[in-house]
Structures are given as structure tokens and as C-alpha cells.
Amino acid sequence: MPQQPENPFHPGEYLLEEFLEPAAISQAEFARRIGWTETRLNELIRGKQGVSAEAALDLADALHTSTRLWMNLQITWDLDQEIKRRNAA
Fold it and tell me: Domain 11-88 belongs to what architecture?
């Protein structure tokens, strides 16, 4: 099995810490910019929701990143969570 990062970031945490906070952009402002509700954005940031393909496109367009960045962060997070569940069983 390929090596997984030891402590992967949830995409919402990455969004907050690497983009919003350094640019001093509020969640409300960013949600308006990308056409999301504040609730949707907040749930992503809190890790309550993941990044869908549609969300990856929105984030990539708004932040001038690749869609693969967001999808890779999500799949890495999902795999880590599943490995933890299986190991706990």
C-alpha cells in the first residue's frame, strides 16, 4: 500500500489556513465571491462536508489553483479516515 501522509489536512482546513487567513478574507466574503452560501463554506471549513467535483471547480477558479489540488486533498483525507476506521475495528 502506498505511504499516506501521517496527518493529512481536510480540504476545508487547508482552504482556511493557506488562502483565507493569509489574505484576510472572511468566510462571508469568500462565499459571496464563489456563489456559495456561508453555511456551505463553513461546513467545508469545519470538516462537516467534503469537496465535490463541482466544489473543486469553484475553488480552483476562485483561487487560481488546479481542481486536482482540491480533489487530491479530499481523497487523501477520505483514505486516511477509512484507514483509521478499519484499524479501529
Answer: Orthogonal Bundle (1.10)
Of the candidates 62, 4, 27, 38, the one whose C-alpha atom is nearest the C-alpha of residue 70 is 62
Q: The whole model's pTM is what?
A: 0.89
Contact 58, 51 (CB under 8 A): no
Q: Which residues of 56-89 are buried (b: 16+ CB within 10 A; e: fewer)?
A: bebbbeebeeebebbbebbebbeebeeeeeeeee
Alpha-carbon distances of 25 from 8, 29, 73, rounded to whole Å: 24, 6, 21
Domain boundaries, the chain: 11-88
As a whole number of angstroms, the distance between CA 86 and CA 36 comes to: 34
Residue-wise pLDDT for 25-53, tens only, equals: 999 999 999 999 999 999 999 999 999 99
Lowest mean pLDDT among 7-11, 26-30, 78-82: 7-11
